[in-house]
Design brief:
Elements lengths: L8 H15 L6 H8 L4 H6 L3 H22 L9 H13 L1 H8 L9 H6 L4 H11 L5 H21 L6 H15 L1
Helix pairs in contact: 1-2, 1-4, 1-6, 5-6, 5-9, 5-10, 8-9, 9-10
């Protein structure tokens, strides 16, 4: 009877994701993953033809993780795009390595930034509809302006150049929405 596989694809992906989350995607190597998973590199290359295939699955897991993070982030304002911005900035603050991987990378493994942000629930579309309901004529243009602002805050968070507290950030997002409308 053949030996039972102890190192599964799910086990490797879970460990690879944890490695990317703590050290950054650029530090996910076969050797580091093998050490984290408690195995040799042989099971990695038995299950994946190359590291690029593994990295692609890490990205998919990170996209799902961001969607869950967004869904579970508290809602802080009634103004359109304020909750979207708040969750995005919180993600940059709490998960800087994953934020860099998902939103500051040249290669997102077939995920666009918009797809990641919009999620399976249509988060951006919901906010645009909310803006339309509030009387905004061109919610797409408003989203573009808000997105540039929100992404700037998150990037400043990553570099340590943003030091406003949560309450000030929420107020800033609300005021920015009002100024663009």
């Amino acid at each position: 009877m053949p030996r039972k596989e102890t190192i599964t694809k799910n086990y490797l992906i879970d460990n690879a994701f944890l490695l990317a989350r703590s050290e950054g995607i650029e530090n996910v190597t076969a050797r580091k993953l093998a050490a984290k998973a408690g195995c040799s590199t042989q099971p990695i290359f038995r299950l994946y033809s190359n590291m690029d295939d593994l990295i692609s699955e890490i990205y998919a897991k990170a996209v799902e993780y961001y969607a869950n993070f967004y869904d579970n982030c508290k809602r802080v304002a009634d103004e359109p795009f304020a909750n979207l911005g708040y969750a995005y900035v919180r993600f940059a603050t709490e998960e800087p390595k994953l934020f860099k991987m998902l939103f500051l990378s040249n290669n997102r493994y077939n995920f666009s930034m918009y797809e990641i942000l919009n999620g399976s629930n249509g988060n951006v579309a919901q906010e645009m509809n909310k803006a339309k309901e509030a009387g905004v004529v061109n919610s797409g243009d408003l989203f573009t302006k808000m997105w540039i602002f929100i992404h700037g805050i998150a990037c400043m968070t990553i570099t340590g150049d943003y030091d406003l507290n949560e309450a000030d950030t929420i107020e800033l997002l609300k005021n920015t929405y009002r100024s663009f409308v």
